[in-house]
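Marked as duplicate of an earlier ticket. Keeping the data here for the record.
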Amino acid sequence: MLRQLEKAEKKWGGANTLIDQWLNNRRKLLVNYCQIAGLPPYGSPRKSLPSFDHVKSFCEQLLDYVSEGHFEVYDKVVSACEKNGNSGRSLAKELLPKISQTTDAALDFSDKYTEARDEQVLYQLDKDLSHLADAMETRFELEDELLEVLHSKHSEKRSQQVGS
């Protein structure tokens, strides 16, 4: 997921402040994920479970990222796709329900760990993190596809204007 993020940052970084902020927030989320999962390069192999507070903090960050996409970024990307023709709009409308499915996995994870009253739930963390990683990897791929449509349509439009 980190390599995928690096490709996205290289491809779309600097094109738009909102997208830069969004990709930066994705990076922070992935770093925090690696830390609580005990994965390199940001986490060291765990000898014990992460603290309950650290997991809850990750859940807040996860919800912030998901919310930012749904309530800020997607609307603007879809609007931009609509301005650039029917193909962009139809693909955006096709991708959003798929992205929403991954939101359910993030919400389920967050609900489980923020509402838990007993730290025993942390014994299920590795399995739950693995399930969450699958959903988030799918989400990032779909988000990147959405950005690619916007980027390619914008690039086409710009090259047509230059050629005129």
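See parent ticket for discussion. The mean pLDDT is 82.
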